[in-house]
């Protein structure tokens, strides 16, 4: 097995491989009502999603705050849902709340049958080419020769920013070691890297990508995370949380939004998140910090969080609770 690295430079220039300790759940919805069932609870327009395609969606509470985000893969006879890791039981229970007696849809949990591998970086597709099942000609959602599948994320994500290529591979358990060896041989030959958990999170932070549950939770709207353009349909019918989402889009304004922060030349201190950020001029709250990392590329501590509108200009100085100075930084960092 290759040695994990802490530096993300090669991943940004070529590609990086990451093995999460906990895989995303693999939940499948089958039956003739599968699409109409999800249409009433997901923020994306499931009815208009093409076969063999991937979409990104939110599952909201009635006040339109984020409960889960999930990737939705449209198979020929079922829909695969891939919510965040460690949410399997909670996510299935949420689905069951809306699965009424007469609904012809069935929830099947296949999480134990797959293990996940993640790829990031500009050469992601070249890594995947030898693994694709060419009889399944999807674009963002592809089957693999070993019976697994891959979710290829959109390169335009939060605030429509270019975050580069990413892919999640779901490998059948009995094929995992073979696929792992093949990927690591390719990585060694082509000069990619194996990322540790901390370096993978640093990579995502450098790209400014909001994550569940640090930035995506029931304190925030999708639009505040800059994800409504990729994860919300404003043209579909009713679903849980639709009314507040639509009202915010067409009649309201955002009081806060996702932002980046930097601590020049130093790592952020250990803190319990979220951390309040203060306006140095009057001591009033300016926003919150939700996660941090240290970027070797920038030689600085970096972080994500949410800022009130008046403080969003790049370079604005704010204070941590210990009075250390941080600056607002445009996204992505790298």
Observed structural traits:
YgfZ/GCV_T_CS, 334 residues, 6-stranded antiparallel sheet, alpha+beta
Give the topology, please.
Blueprint: E1 4-5, H1 9-13, E2 16-18, E3 27-30, H2 34-39, E4 54-60, E5 66-74, E6 78-82, H3 88-97, E7 106-109, E8 114-120, H4 124-128, E9 141-143, E10 149-152, E11 166-172, H5 176-190, E12 193-195, H6 197-206, H7 228-231, H8 242-250, E13 256-264, E14 275-278, E15 285-295, E16 300-308, E17 317-319, E18 325-329
Parallel strand pairs: 1-12, 2-12
Antiparallel strand pairs: 2-8, 3-6, 3-7, 4-5, 5-6, 8-11, 9-10, 10-11, 13-16, 13-18, 14-15, 15-16, 17-18
Strand order of the largest sheet: 1-12-2-8-11-10-9
The beta-strand count equals: 18
The CATH homologous superfamily of the largest domain is named Probable tRNA modification gtpase trme, domain 1
Estimated share of beta-strand residues: 25-35%
- Average per-residue pLDDT, rounded, comes to 94
Radius of gyration: 20 Å
> Would you identify the CATH architecture of the largest domain?
2-Layer Sandwich
Shape: globular
The helix fraction, in percent, is 10-25%
Number of contiguous helices: 8
Poorly predicted regions are: none
Span between N and C termini?
Answer: 28 Å
Largest β sheet strand count, sense and barrel closure: 7 strands, mixed
User: What is the level 1 CATH name of the largest domain?
Assistant: Alpha Beta
Q: How many individual domains?
A: 2
Structural class: alpha+beta
Output the helix-strand order.
EHEEHEEEHEEHEEEHEHHHEEEEEE
CATH topology of the largest domain: Gyrase A, domain 2
């Amino acid at each position: 097995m290759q040695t994990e690295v802490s530096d993300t430079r090669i991943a940004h220039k070529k590609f990086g491989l990451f093995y999460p300790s906990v895989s995303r759940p693999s939940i499948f919805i089958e039956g003739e009502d599968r699409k109409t069932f999800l249409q009433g609870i997901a923020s994306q327009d499931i009815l208009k999603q093409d076969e063999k395609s991937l979409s990104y969606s939110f599952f909201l509470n009635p006040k339109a705050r984020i409960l889960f985000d999930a990737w939705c893969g449209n198979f020929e006879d079922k829909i695969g849902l891939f919510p965040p890791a460690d949410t399997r039981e909670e996510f299935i229970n949420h689905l069951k709340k809306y699965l009424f007696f007469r609904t012809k849809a069935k929830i099947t949990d296949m999480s134990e049958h797959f293990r996940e591998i993640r790829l990031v970086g500009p050469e992601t597709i070249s890594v995947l080419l030898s693994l694709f099942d060419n009889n399944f000609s999807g674009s963002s959602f592809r089957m693999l020769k070993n019976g697994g599948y891959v979710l290829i994320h959109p390169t335009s994500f939060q605030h429509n920013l270019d975050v580069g290529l990413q892919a999640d591979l779901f490998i059948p358990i009995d094929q995992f070691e073979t696929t792992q060896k093949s990927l690591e041989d390719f990585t060694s030959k082509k000069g990619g890297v194996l990322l540790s958990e901390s370096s993978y999170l640093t990579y995502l932070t450098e790209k400014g990508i909001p994550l569940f549950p640090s930035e995506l939770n029931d304190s925030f709207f999708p639009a505040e995370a800059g994800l409504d353009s990729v994860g919300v349909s404003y043209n579909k019918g009713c679903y849980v949380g639709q009314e507040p989402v639509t009202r915010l889009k067409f009649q309201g304004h955002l009081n806060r939004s996702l932002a980046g922060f930097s601590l020049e030349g130093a790592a952020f201190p250990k803190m319990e998140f979220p951390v309040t950020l203060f306006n140095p001029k009057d001591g009033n709250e300016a926003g919150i910090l939700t996660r941090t990392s240290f970027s070797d590329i920038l030689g600085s501590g970096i972080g994500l969080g949410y800022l009130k509108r008046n403080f969003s200009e790049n370079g604005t100085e704010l204070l941590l609770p210990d009075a250390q100075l941080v600056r607002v930084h445009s996204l992505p960092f790298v």
